[in-house]
From TrEMBL:
It comes from Pedobacter insulae. Residues 1-20 form the signal peptide. Keywords: Glycosidase, Hydrolase, Signal. CDD domains: GH20_DspB_LnbB-like. InterPro entries: Beta_hexosaminidase_sua/sub, ConA-like_dom_sf, GH, GH20_Enzymes, Glyco_hydro_20_cat, Hex-like_dom2, HEX_bac_N. Residues 156-322, 323-471 form the Glycoside hydrolase family 20 catalytic domain. One of its GO terms (biological process) is carbohydrate metabolic process. The active site is at 317 (proton donor). Pfam families: Glyco_hydro_20, Glyco_hydro_20b, Laminin_G_3. Residues 25-152 form the Beta-hexosaminidase bacterial type N-terminal domain. It comes from the Bacteria. GO terms for molecular function: beta-N-acetylhexosaminidase activity. This is Hexosaminidase.
Length: 677
């Protein structure tokens, strides 16, 4: 089976090298149409991006983004943006707003002696640049693109990813990187779920102690903004602007009247006595005033915080008994947000909340997530447009034990497209289905999941779902999933990104230092840390080092550090070897002896972290669960680690002693190999 798969991969990668007619290059999402020619276009040492004089203003933003991306990939090449007519080797942009043969986000890519991008809109031209980057990424040394003509266009208008930042904080830099990652795969919509709360049973059944967060700076209600991580208005505006330079629309979501504990903590008098403090009391006029004021702060004035056309108002999972009041609240919130010139999105709930109170549907879009809450055909009859977000297909809830930890990608690849909502299958020509979205929900607050762990789940899903949201359910035209899965590993994350911490080399040994005859490996606690050539390494890895600690090292003495994580000789006050990342502190049940040389080997993957001492296995941090006194429910305790390598030692609290040698491998070595290191 493995041999057959290898031959299949090779045939797809290299067919165009031997055939007279070049086969379609592999990209994600798949090109809609391809007509092969012979020969190759080759990227020159000076790359001219040529724009028609009349259209320069329309394309400036996207062409500049493309130029920045090329510079990130090929830093030694000259990148120039010019106007006029193309010459051999150039990349030429031509936009014709009146084109009848090219869709709004579509493009035609003519690859000859120079490369021509024809598009109806600047955004369509930009998507062509993502295709070019992906082709080049698979042949980084030859810099060749097979000659031919590609005609490409998306089947669906909305190709979205939803991220819950309310229950887990993600840094603004992480979100900015995700804009670039989504864009690389032609995903054009990034919904950011800005507020939410944990489950009361994990906080002693006490709403006042239950975790909640509202992640955006708010002046109207100063107590609203989360203290443990939030975004300033400027940061969020800049994020949206960045998205617009990459073809990605940021859709902010403020969720109410449920999932609203952060709001009731700021304004306690609007909490529901009947349904709990995570529910707003929607019978009170004060509740309407507060919710309207929150939205107003981000929507008012000539320069609003929410700069894009659409805003998501939540309206998810409110108590069924309050259907009429819920419908009234929903209708009011829709109309209030629309009064600022915005279009509204909301979570589908009106089958769950049946009633007589009308709720506006014209120009309103529902995320159709669970058919029991909003039956899709019924919602379409009411006039709503939909984004297919079926929980049973597309919900990731890391390490929760329900929904998916990792999506079933083969099943999605073979059977799902946005016209599939739950168990219902609609025509792909249904104009009320705007597209699809997959989501990460961080329900279990405090389970130890990191930003990197989320990416480990999102990235492979993104590759499959970007394809299905772009081309639709054309299963007959798709290569086998196993072939797609193999080839997809060549595409990467896009220019300048390495969110998964991948380190490649000629072999699995990717970093090595020997300090045995050098003072560089000696640390007094005062000297500058030693900087390596790597910041970190992600899953899977093996890191082996010899260490001789001096006596009397302090608590939290640092051996390795990077911006994201620290490996400590003495974790907190335990005296045990451990590591910290994102506010979580973990330790092995092992103390490194003083004044003797010991070989420490640590391996890590997406499930956990292992320790070996002098080649012998000691402990695996994986599968632990957290218990709570007042409930039988448990949550995971995730003890993964992106190994920090930027510094040996630390400027503030370095360990005292010596490092003898360091070896880093980009795979988890077997016990037998570890014993021989």
């Amino acid at each position: 089976m493995k041999l057959k798969l290898a031959f299949a991969l090779l045939s797809v990668l290299f067919t165009y090298h031997v055939n007279a007619q070049n086969s379609a290059p592999f990209v994600i999402p798949k090109l809609q149409e391809w007509t092969g020619n012979t020969g190759f276009y080759t990227l020159k040492s000076t790359i001219n991006l040529v724009v028609d004089d009349k259209l320069n203003d329309l394309l400036t933003t996207y062409v500049q983004t493309f130029a920045n991306d090329l510079k990130a990939v090929y830093p030694k090449r000259n990148i120039r943006i010019k106007t006029g007519k193309p010459q051999k080797g150039d990349i030429y942009f031509h936009v014709d707003n009146n084109s009848q043969s090219i869709a709004s986000e579509g493009y035609e890519l003519q690859i000859a002696d120079y490369l021509t991008i024809h598009a109806k809109t600047p955004l369509g031209a930009f998507w062509a640049t993502r295709t070019i980057l992906q082709i080049l990424a698979q042949d980084p040394t030859q810099l060749k693109i097979p000659k031919g003509i590609a005609k490409d266009f998306p089947k669906y208008e909305v190709r979205s990813f939803v991220l819950d930042v309310g229950r887990k904080f993600f840094t603004i830099d992480f979100l900015r990187n995700y804009v670039k990652l989504l864009s690389y795969y032609k995903m054009n919509d990034f919904q950011i779920h800005l507020n939410d709360n944990g489950f009361k049973q994990f906080f002693n059944n006490d709403w006042s102690k239950t975790y909640s967060a509202f992640r955006l700076e708010n002046a109207t209600y100063p107590g609203l903004t989360a203290k443990d991580g939030s975004y300033s208005k400027k940061e969020f505006i800049d994020l949206q602007k960045l998205g617009n330079t990459y073809g990605v629309t940021i859709v902010p979501e403020i969720d109410a009247p449920a999932h609203a504990l952060s709001i009731t903590k700021a304004v306690p008098e609007i909490a529901s006595d009947k349904y709990g403090a995570d529910h707003l009391d929607i019978t009170k006029p004060k509740t309407y005033e507060v919710v309207h004021n929150i939205f107003k702060e981000y929507l008012q004035g000539p320069n609003p915080v929410f700069i894009n056309e659409e805003v998501h108002i939540g309206t998810d999972e409110y108590a069924k008994a309050e259907a009429e009041n819920f419908r009234k609240f929903t209708d009011s919130t829709i109309k209030y947000v629309e009064s600022f010139g915005k279009r509204v999105r909301l979570w589908g709930a009106l089958t769950h909340a049946k009633g007589q109170t009308p709720v506006k549907s014209t120009n309103v879009t529902m995320n159709l997530w669970y058919n029991g809450y909003a039956e899709p055909a019924e919602m379409f009859k009411l006039g709503y447009k939909g984004i297919s977000t079926p929980d049973g297909w597309l919900y990731i809830v890391p390490k929760a034990g329900y929904y998916y930890d990792y999506l079933n990608l083969k099943n999605i690849y073979q059977k799902w497209a946005p016209n599939v909502i739950g168990k219902e299958v609609f025509s792909e020509d249904n104009k009320q289905i705007r597209g699809g979205a997959f989501a990460v929900w961080n329900d279990h607050v405090g389970n130890g999941i990191t930003q990197e762990d989320v990416t480990d789940r999102v990235f492979p899903a993104l590759q499959v779902l970007s394809q299905k949201m772009w081309i639709g359910n054309t299963a007959d035209s798709l290569m086998k999933f196993e072939v797609f899965n193999g080839l997809s590993k060549q595409i990467g994350e896009g220019p300048g990104l390495n969110l998964r911490g991948k380190v490649n080399g000629k072999d699995s040994l990717v970093l090595q230092y020997d300090f045995t005859s050098s003072k560089s490996g000696r640390f007094t606690g005062k000297k500058k840390p030693f900087q390596t050539t790597l910041n970190e390494i992600g899953y899977d890895y093996t890191v082996s080092f010899t260490i001789n600690p001096s006596a009397g090292n302090p608590a939290n003495a640092v051996i390795f550090s990077s911006p994201k994580a620290i490996v400590k000789l003495k974790q907190l006050n335990t005296s045990m070897l451990g590591f910290s990342r994102e506010g979580y502190d973990y330790n092995f049940n092992y103390t490194v002896p003083e004044n003797v040389w010991t070989k420490i080997t640590i391996t890590g993957n997406n499930k956990g972290t292992s320790l070996y001492v002098n080649g012998v296995f000691v402990e695996r941090l994986e599968g632990a669960m957290q218990s709570f006194a007042n409930t039988k429910d448990k949550i995971a305790k995730v003890q993964t680690l992106f190994f920090p390598l930027k510094y040996i030692g630390d400027t503030q609290n370095s360990f005292k002693g010596a490092i003898g040698s360091l070896k880093v491998f980009n795979k988890v070595l077997t016990d037998k190999l570890i014993s021989k290191l």
